[in-house]
Structures are given as C-alpha cells and as structure tokens.
Amino acid sequence: MTTVYTETEPAFIPVQTRSERPHSYDPSDFERPTGREVNWRHTPLDALAPLFDVDAAAGDLDVTVTDAAASALRVGDAPRGSVFRPEDLPAAVAWVRATEADHVVLEGERDEPVFIEVTGRGGVAHAHLVIEARPNAHATVVLRHRGSTTLAQNVEIIVGDGAHLELVSVQEWNGGSVHAASHQARVDRDATLRHVVVSFGGAVVRVNPSIELAGTGSRAELYGLSYSDSGQHLESQVYLYHKGAETTGDVLYKGALQGAGARSVWIGDVLIGPDATGTDSYEANRNLVLTDGARAESIPNLEIETGDIRGAGHASATGRFDDEQLFYLQARGIPEPEARRLVVLGFLSEIVQRIGVPSLEDELTELIERELAQGISATVSEGASA
Predict the structure, then answer these.
(1) How far is CA 86 from CA 91, 96, 107, 131, 271, in A?
(2) Cβ contacts of 38 within 8 Å, gap of 6 or more
C-alpha cells in the first residue's frame, strides 16, 4: 500500500476575536461586508451600503465646537492617526474622505462642558474628530448629533497622563438617518476616560468604542443607554483592551426596546493582555423588552492572557416588562401610564446618574421622558383597542 501526500490550501479560519481584526487606512484592503463576518453579522448592511463606497457623492455636515480651542488636521498631521487605525470599511473610507479632521484640545481644569454639535444636512457624509486631553487636564465633552444624514464618523481620543476626560456621545438623529461611528481611545498612565453613549434617534445607529488602557493605573468607565422604537436598529460593539498594569475597567450598557421591529445589538469584548497584571475588569449588558416584536441581542466576550489579576467578569440579561411591578404600583393608586413610566425610567436612570454633570443629567432625563411618553401612549392605546 502506497500513501500519497499532497499539499492543499490551508482552511480559511474566520476572524473571531476583536484583537485579531485587521487594520488599514486604505479602504481597498477591506472586503465589502457580506453579513457573514463576525463584526457585521448583526448589522443591516443595506442601510449602510452608501458608507462602503469611497466615491459616494458628499453630503452636507456642520460641526460646531463651543468653548474650546479647535483646529484642522490633515492626514499626516499629528496627533491624527497616533491612536486611530480603521478596523472596518466605513472607518477607512471616512479616514480618506475626511480630508480635514477637527482637533479639540483640552487643558487644565474645566468647570463647564465643551459642546461639539454635529448637524446633518442630508446625503452621505464623512467626518474625523480628534479629542486630546493633555496631561492632568480635567474636562467633559458632549458630542451631540442631530439632523438627517448617512454618516461614517471616526472619533480619536487621547487621554494624557493623569488626565480625566468624560465624553458623552448623544445620538438624536431624525428618522431615516444612518450613523456608523468608530471611537478609538488611548488612556495613558493614571488617567481616566468615562465614555458614555446615548442613542435614541435614527434608523440605524452603530457606535463602536475601542479603548486601550495603555498606561499603568489607567481606568475606563464605559456606559451606554439606548431606547429603540419600532423599526430602529441601535448597536454598539465595545472593545476594552487592558494593556498596562494595574488598570481598571467598568462597562455597563442598558437598553429599552418597544415596538415591532425594534432591535438592539450589544457586543462586549474585553481583552486582558499578558502585561496587564493587577487588572480589575467587569462588563455587563441589561435590556428591557417592553412589547412583543422587539428583539435584543447581547454577546459578552472575555479573553485573559495573564493569571495575575484582581478580578474579571461579565454578565448579560434580557427580560420583559415586569407585570408584577406594574401591578404593585397600580394597586397603590398609580395609573398604568405613570406606573410604566416609573419602572422604565428607574431602569434607565442608573446610566444617567453616572454622568456626574447635573445639567446634562437633567437634559438626558427629559429626553428619556419624551421617548417614554410617546411609547407608553402608543402601548396604552393598543391595549385599550384590544
């Protein structure tokens, strides 16, 4: 018996973990997504199709910065690109198409938030924003999105040694808008980044934060809040990379969903690298499904490459509206619409209260109240007609 050995092409092994994904500034290095890729499996690709085209006609986008120094950076101008490396096609297209990036520099102690207003005026748009907190700076930045657009947006965040930066990204797009945002940050020695994503408006909103805790003693607090109405798709793919020693990570995203076709997607990836000794990290996602026809997907992942850590864990939970809570409140004379409002508001307010800026917390609470009023009114009306 003769055995013949032949060489064959190696089997294709798909990229599974966030740390393995390729990076490139050249859009031609990325294949057009098919929906089979791990990072596109849960995303409605048809809506994002214009953002895959490097030659798409440009739409109008206004960016206004209040109470902070701002300048323009071309490709090759530092610090643009010192942190950001596109990991998907829309981010690479935005890197090329955004010929000038807005550069916001933060220094010293700032008592009032810096507001960056992004307003869509229709069409397909691309943007790159660099937010740099210089060493020992202490500042809050509110990045607010309004209007109508199909936008690919890159946000590059640099948190210098000993700095404390809070970035709150609020998505209040008009119906029909599409927003694919890639946020990438580096947090240096003894620095803290509190990153908050609040998504309400828009047809498809995908905000993906990627945070590298590079310096010893660095810390990241990543919080998210979303309210998905009928037909909306709200998504976040979170990546927290513990690179330095004695780093701390706290991730908590909460979402409420209501209406036919309402959908949320949360994917949380935490990597504790081989040099990240003494790390303490935890991630969690909680979803409240308020009506039939809504769907929440939650996928936490944890990779640990060193055994010398203080702690690491993850959790995920998705549940329906608690009828017992509703009954309890109604039995004490609280009308059903108000009872529903109290339960949902209590669930979501945990994220708002972590922001630490009273004026912004009040504003976001009012925004939640508006969403609840619209959704609860529709729910009660449907119940009455049934």
Answers:
(1) 5, 10, 27, 17, 19
(2) 14, 15, 16
Q: What dihedral angle (degrees, nearest 10) is formed by the CA atoms of 240, 242, 244, 249?
A: 80
Please enumerate in sequence order all residues whose Cβ is within 8 A of that of 324, keeping only pairs 6 or more positions apart, or say none. none
How far is Cα 378 from Cα 371, in angstroms, rounded to an integer? 11
Distance CA 36, CA 104 (A): 37
Residue 271's contacts (CB-CB under 8 Å, 6 or more residues apart) are 17, 18, 19, 239, 240, 241, 242, 303, 305
CA angle 115, 150, 36 (to 5 degrees): 115
Per residue of the chain (386 residues), give pLDDT as tens: 444 434 444 444 444 567 777 899 999 999 999 999 999 999 999 999 999 999 998 889 999 999 888 999 999 999 999 999 999 999 999 999 999 999 999 999 998 999 999 999 999 999 999 999 999 999 999 999 999 999 999 999 999 999 999 999 999 999 999 999 999 999 999 999 999 999 999 999 999 999 999 999 999 999 999 999 999 999 999 999 999 999 999 999 999 998 999 999 999 999 999 999 999 999 999 999 988 899 999 999 999 999 999 999 999 999 887 777 777 777 878 887 788 788 888 889 999 998 877 888 888 888 888 877 776 555 544 444 44
Q: How many CA atoms lie within 13 A of 252 on its CB side?
A: 12
Helix (H, G, I), strand (E, B) or coil at 302: strand
